[in-house]
Amino acid sequence: MTKVSKILIVEDESSIRRVLKKILEEESSSYQVDVAEDGEEGLEKIKAEDYDLVISDIKMPKMDGEELLVAAKKLKPETVFVMISGHGDLETAVTTMRLGAFDYISKPPDLNRLLTTVRNGLDTSKLVVENTILKKKVNKKYDIIGESTPIVRIKEMIEKVAQTEARVLITGSNGTGKELVAHQLHLQSKRAAQPFIEVNCAAIPSELIESELFGHVKGAFTSAVKDRPGKFELANSGTIFLDEIGDMSMPAQAKVLRALQENMITRVGAEKDVKVDVRVLAATNKDLKKEIAEGRFREDLYHRLAVILIEVPCLNDRRDDIPLLLTHFVKQIANEQGTVAKVLTEEAIQLLKEYDWTGNIRELRNVVERLIILGGKEISKEDVELFANK
Q1: Which long-range CB contacts under 8 A does 71-79 form with residues at least 24 apart?
Q2: How many domains does the chain have?
Q3: Do residues 227 and 267 lie in contact, with contact meaning Cβ atoms separated by under 8 Å?
Q4: Could you tell me the CATH number of the domain that includes residue 382?
């Protein structure tokens, strides 16, 4: 079945409006074409309907095309706009493109040019929709599951902090979900469309951490066969997440401090500085104040990072979330394995709520996966006793 493409023509001249509508409807039976006499009417229609493409005149009474473009993009950023004008000049074209228009066509429009632009615009609209759906799926992967008081507080803090540029230090035991907090801070920020670069400081050898973070130039060391940007450069205009920052070497800490102070980094072996614009989030399972006292972590770096502190609770401190987490993991694992989601009995859920979860949410997910593989069609208390290995 052919998908209907919804097109809106916003044009104050009735003759041009009729001609454009007729041309498009004759071009394809899959085009559903609506019209509006001015920008105000056009905006009301855009509020009420999801259009794949809007063709708008620029010079109109009440609300002109540029005003409509700006207002519509605020409401529905994915809407594709093609602007037309009988008063065309290069400056107007550039302005509308900067405001988010897909294309600009002078009046009277060349028929072939118009139809080609409409087809290309609709293809772009389709890609935008597909990307939006895919992005929602990816974002859902980083949802923070839970309704307990500690989790509600964290969600509220994320909502307040995400839109700012404040640096955040996320603390908590292994397996509590510190990386989910970092992802949510990025996804709810103004930088959400820009890169999110994650660095596990504990997994990188100390002799390589500087090259990993700041890059290197060819010949800086034996294996440096070409110039290579570091994570800070890759994260430019976006967010860098320094996980397990408590394991970072002191020399690397000094360079990270400089990057935070001056928004500048230097590749290993280079003399020229590189300006970077990154938001820094960090996480650790260590007590950094104790690390400072014992000379393993820089106090000045701590204060640069810990503008906002978010402590993620252990699973034992949020047991009321366990039923929600169980439901989430059962569905997630069933989708991954292409099987039907199993049901846990109330007795099984209650027993799992009583366990001591030293490995936190990561351990809980592993147990759920084991129960799905080894347990019966319905996961019982007996299955938990046999396979949870607690």
Answers
A1: 71/43, 72/42, 72/43, 72/46, 73/99, 73/100, 75/46, 75/47, 76/46, 76/50, 78/125, 78/128, 78/129, 78/132, 79/46, 79/50, 79/51, 79/53, 79/54, 79/125
A2: 3
A3: yes
A4: 1.10.8.60
The alpha carbons of the chain give a radius of gyration, in whole angstroms, of 28
Phi and psi at 165, nearest 5°, equal -100, 10
Same domain, 111 and 89: yes
Concatenating the DSSP letter of every residue in 215-231 gives -B-TTSSTT--S-B--H
pLDDT one digit per residue (tens) for the chain, 390 residues: 567 899 999 999 999 999 999 999 999 889 999 999 999 999 999 999 999 999 999 989 889 999 999 999 988 888 899 999 876 667 777 888 888 899 998 888 888 889 999 999 998 888 777 666 565 555 578 899 999 999 999 999 999 999 999 999 999 999 999 999 999 999 999 999 899 999 999 999 888 898 999 999 998 888 888 989 999 999 999 999 999 999 999 999 999 999 999 999 999 999 889 999 999 999 999 999 999 999 999 999 999 999 999 999 999 999 999 999 999 999 999 988 888 899 999 999 999 999 999 999 999 999 999 999 999 999 999 999 999 876
What pTM value is reported for the model? 0.67
Range of the domain at 160: 149-313
- Using CB atoms within 10 A of its CB, is residue 295 exposed (0-12), middle (13-18) or buried (19+)? exposed
Residue 247's CATH number:
3.40.50.300
